Amino acid sequence: MSGSPPVRRDPTTGFHLRNAGPSVVARLFAAADRVAASLCAMWLDLDRFRQVNDSFGYAEADAVIALIAGRIRSVAGERATFLRMGSDEFAILLPAVETPDGERIAGRLLATIDQPIPLAGILLRPSVSIGITWRLAADDPLSLLARADRAMGEAKRQGGDRFVVMAVEPPGVASAARSARQDLEIESVLHASLATGDLELHYQPIVRPDGSVEAVEALMRCAVGGRQVSPLQLVAVAEKTGLIVRIGEWILLQGARCAARLRAQGCPTKVAINISRLQLCSESFLSNLHAALICARLPADAIELELTESLFVDASPVVQANLRGAREAGVGLAIDDFGTGYSSLANLKDLPATKLKFDRAFINELPEDRRAFAILSAITRLAGELGMVVVAEGVETAAQLAACEAARVDATQGFLHAKPMSEDALSQWMETRKSR
To answer: Is the pLDDT of residue 332 over 80?
Structure first.
């Protein structure tokens, strides 16, 4: 007799994985209905846990997570159901627990999690923000989890190391509820799309002043309910849930295959692929990169990786080894979004980058802002002496293009040349340019 497939567990904590949340909670709904019992949901988020990742690395952080998961399990008890909702976020489902008992359990969780943890010669003092809610008559699994998440967010806003009860939706949270639910829907679609191959890449050309194509940037696209989701929202959800690593592997392979098909078509050009911090922190990154090149039968210099400058200066040995390995293999490295955030001339001279991409926010000021033009011109000359190609992103008008060319940038990217397009449309676009 066939039954439901087993639910996979998080290897670090033994908790259910986040994507199992809706089905796990639906089963708890059914069990509660049979005995007319309540269902309490708690969402826990460790306070300032990123400092542990940044200071000690992911192996030590996982050890801390495993220990804290044990503390959570010991307080909540055997009747509870546990989910790992993010790297340092958890959900607990407690059947037949009413308000006083729920608050007592939350208080014990605060006290237990707060106990010091010895780590690399120091005593780490963790704390947690907890949101508590109870099932309402109109709830479905997603709305229950989303309300617990919002209650946790309120605990964070109040300073953390506390719990907040949200028994009903307060006025004015409809928009936040829609946003939280949409994130869960996007996550569900991303899981399904990875399984079915329904994710899609679009490509935006990067064009030199003579009209030739310097490269094309691969950009992920995904639809939820027939509506295209903002790439920024897609990436945010993928990074929060850890899906960005699997998605990144898929993009590497598909981008390499696209580059190979373009070469076979007589349009050899590099494909630029955005790389996330989580990908670059993985010890399997280089093997995945080489596997993509081998599967596509593609030379390494046909692929370019786009990273923020903060990744180039990341002190992690794994990150630095992955950067060195990619360059030694012949893969290009581009500094994305230059001109914002961590951008620094002191860093620029030491980075192993082959390309520098000026952020669109900087290009938006052209041609009116003469200081912006002066900076663009100066950095372009400097980057050229360092052996880097300079690209201006977000070029949307002829005046901006003229300013970029006057500053002698090597190539430009933006709607003025072409919007992101499917691979088939890109092939036609490239063929059209060949005939010029």
So the answer is: yes
Which token pair is 214?
A: 């310097």
How far apart CA 142 and CA 115 sit, in angstroms, is: 32
Quote the DSSP letter at residue 262.
H
| CA 429, chain centre distance (Å) | 30
Q: Which residues of 115-138 are buried (b: 16+ CB within 10 A; e: fewer)?
A: eebebeeeebebebbbbbbbbeee
Selection from 397, 393, 392, 361 nearest residue 377 by Cα: 392
The DSSP letter of residue 421 is B
Name the token pair of 422.
Answer: 């499917």
Cβ neighbours of 84 (radius 10 Å): 24
The predicted-structure confidence for 277-290, as pLDDT tens digits, reads as follows 888 888 899 999 99
Q: Tokens 């120091």 — which residue?
A: 122
Maximal CA-CA distance, the chain: 76
Read off the DSSP letter of residue 102.
H
Q: Are 286 and 325 in contact (CB under 8 A)?
A: yes
* H-helix segments, 265-410: 277-280, 285-296, 309-312, 317-329, 345-348, 360-363, 370-385, 398-406
Scanning 44-123, the segments in alpha helix (DSSP H) are 50-56, 58-76, 99-113
Q: In 10 A of CB 402, how many CB atoms?
A: 13
Cα separation, 142 vs 83, whole angstroms: 13
Is there a cis peptide before residue 118, judged by omega within 30 degrees of 0?
no
Domains of the chain and CATH, by start? 16-170 (3.30.70.270), 198-434 (3.20.20.450)
- Looking at residue 4, its pLDDT comes to 45
Please state, as a whole number, how many other Cβ atoms lie within 10 Å of the Cβ of residue 86: 17
CA distance 356 to 359: 10
Q: How far is CA 260 from CA 254, 256, 264, 301, in A?
A: 10, 6, 6, 12
The residue among 364, 355, 343 whose CA lies nearest residue 384 is: 355
The predicted-structure confidence for 120-159, as pLDDT tens digits, reads as follows: 778 888 999 999 999 988 888 888 998 999 999 999 988 8
Rounded Cα distance between 300 and 291, Å, is 11
User: What is d(CA 149, CA 144) in angstroms, rounded to the nearest whole number?
Assistant: 9
Q: How do residues 67-77 score in pLDDT, each as one tens digit?
A: 999 999 999 99
DSSP codes, 185-211: HHHHHHHHHHHHT--EEEEEEEE-TTS
